Amino acid sequence: MEIKLQAILPGQKLMHLYRQMVLSREFEEGCAEQYTKGRITGFLHLYSGQEAVAVGATAGLHHEDYILSAYREHAQAIVRGSDPRRVMAELFGKSTGLCKGKGGSMHLFDPEHNFMGGYAIVGGQLPIAVGLAFSSVYRGEDRITACFFGDGAVNQGTFHESLNWARLWELPVLFICENNFYGIGTEVHRSSALASIHKRTCGYDIPSEKVDGMDVIAVYRAVRHAAELVREQRRPYFIEAVTYRFRGHSMADPAKYRSAAEQSIWKSRDPIPAFAKRLLEESVATETELEGIRRECTELVKEAVQFAETSPWPESSELWDGVYVPDDAVGESDHV
Amino acid sequence: MSDMTYRDAINLALREELRRDPTVFILGEDVALYEGSFKVTRGLLAEFGAERVRDTPISENTIIGVAIGAAMGGLRPVAELMTVNFALLAMDQLINHMAKIRYMFGGQTMLPMVVRAPGGGGSQLAAQHSQSLESYFMHCPGIHLAMPATPADAKGLLKTAIRSKNPVMFLEHELLYNSTGSVPDDPEFLVPFGKARVMREGSDVTIVAYSRMAVLALEAAHALEQEGVSCEVIDLRTLAPLDVATIVASSLKTGRAVVVEECCGAAGLGGDIAWRIHAACFESLLAPVKRVSGLDLPMPYSSALEKLCIPQADTIIMAVRDVVNGRT
Ligand SMILES: Cc1ncc(C[n+]2csc(CCOP(=O)(O)OP(=O)(O)O)c2C)c(N)n1
Ligand SMILES: [Mg+2]
User: N or C end of chain B: smaller count of CB under 10 Å?
Assistant: First the structure.
């Protein structure tokens, strides 16, 4: 029999998880709308469908733990604590954005919340996560580093190099692979000789497990447990969260390579209504309360859009800011 | 002042900075137990221990990535790439990550890290182990690039690099490791970036060079003096930041310039520097600026062929004669 939700987390916390998933979804759908209107430009990769992974995993970590991710990372930053208004402003390219309009959708960064970046080179964040974990050990800090990446990243050299290194140096890294079965249009079994990704870690002597990435509580429990192991043993651990993106790879992708049947099976497992159902069945919440949360999140996203819209563009005088740290030991670079 | 080799000067800089700042640590292939493939890190494991002098797997891209993460986490990593040729396996972390992170994250983080790499040709190591890749890095904003020519500069520039808050590529020349010179003992001796050194004053021609090419340029200048040609030799010390002011002032003074680079000439940094001189000094130039470059070839193994590919003192001498005699 399934354990009752309130035996796992107090009601308030459960409601918080629900709220974060709804906010993530609303935010992404709001982004889609703004993209269609031409206000968000460039590449836009949405997280709709995968919310249970970011929300469950973040809840299983401490706030001082570092998080790194790829380019599908809006929800991860927001769930971690980044201001949705500043995330939206970044997507609009405004000066009030998280990175002052220099990064855009794929490069959020928020050191205040130990969100150490979204990276657009597939697999690029893995070695950096290993280095951050090393800095924590070297400085005698208790924090661990959680590194998210997709099923596409596991065929990069950095994946193998980083897993080997993290185990060799005994570093507190929690690798979280979000297996949504596709890297753009390539299904996992067409890119990976061993499609069961978590099994790959035996080559690096790193314990691993597979978790249902459509179930926020399952992700939360797996990550909380794994994070404690990593924290106590100062060793890496690997979680494969099986999930699905409801939209195309990016806004430019109509996702023709996935059958309607496949999509509808996964949509029927949408993590948000599934969790709502449990909350109602176990009387953690009433329908009115859930409806209230949904309305509140819609409102927050509207506010974020409004904030982004009315924010100023970066001045051309900001163009050269932030390439180098002004540094007395080193002369200013020559920008002829 | 103490006389020492370029290798020992680098070793001393590492040692002093490891002593001074507990956040400095060294990582790289065979840097600890084996003491470096060019023995630059000799004795460091013994003095500072395995926590701070760390051997890594042969994973160049991840060596740089780990250094980036460690720098982001508040440390000051000094990574050694066994040779600059292997930087090509790390170009993703060097160019797509190290050089970009501060800017693309809106200036919210910094990467105080150094990547040391020996390089250059002339040891008959053939095509895959003889490259001069400085133009690759100079082409990329977000990186500082130091290339010392002398033991004193090797020490002073490396110490500045380690204390800098920005990522620095520090390229050492394999043929200079055994060269000697006097080096200040002062542990606070620092050589600033972006300040070229006039190695020798002269009035007829300016020779702009860096690293081993500066040593050869000086040799050429001595020989040319016998012919009555007075050369001013500029050692750039850092290619980024580039000391355009010193290059321009000297070129205005002499009215002639030769730019020497060890890397291949095609799209090489010498073309960029020559253009800067033309743009700033066109009216005052007595002759077009001349370039001396490595040949656009994969490096051949045979000594008979290799020496043809790398600028020699003689090549520089001929170029100076051409400029002085108005031959282009
Ligand atoms: C090194 C590199 N190669 C190719 C790309 C182009 N690209 C962007 S996303 C992507 C697919 C990645 O899939 P996955 O890791 O599963 O992440 P998901 O998009 O499913 O979240 C590819 C090939 C890239 N950004 N970086
Ligand atoms: Mg995927």
Answer: C
Inter-chain touch A111–B108, beta carbons under 8 Å: yes
In the DSSP assignment, the letter for residue B97 is: I
Q: How many residues does chain B have?
A: 328
Q: Residue A330 — pLDDT band, cuts 50, 70, 90?
A: low
What pLDDT sits at residue A302?
98
Contact B166 A100 (CB under 8 A): no
Provide the domain limits for residue B244. 197-324
Q: Three-state SS for A235?
A: coil
User: Domain boundaries in chain A?
Assistant: 5-311
**Annotated active-site positions of B, please?**
60, 129
Relative to beta strand B2-5, strand B180-183 is: antiparallel
Architecture of domain A5-311: 3-Layer(aba) Sandwich (3.40)
Give tens-digit pLDDT for A108-122.
999 999 999 999 999
Residue nearest to atom 6 of ligand 1 (CA): A122
Q: Give the amino acid at A4.
A: K
Answer whether the bond into residue B241 is a cis peptide, omega within 30°: yes
pTM value is: 0.95
pLDDT exceeds cutoff 90 at A100: yes
- Considering only CB atoms, B160 lies closest to which of A110, A124, A330, namely A330
Closest to A136 (Cα-Cα) out of A100, A169, A175, A98: A169
Residue A294 CA to residue B35 CA, distance in Å, equals 61
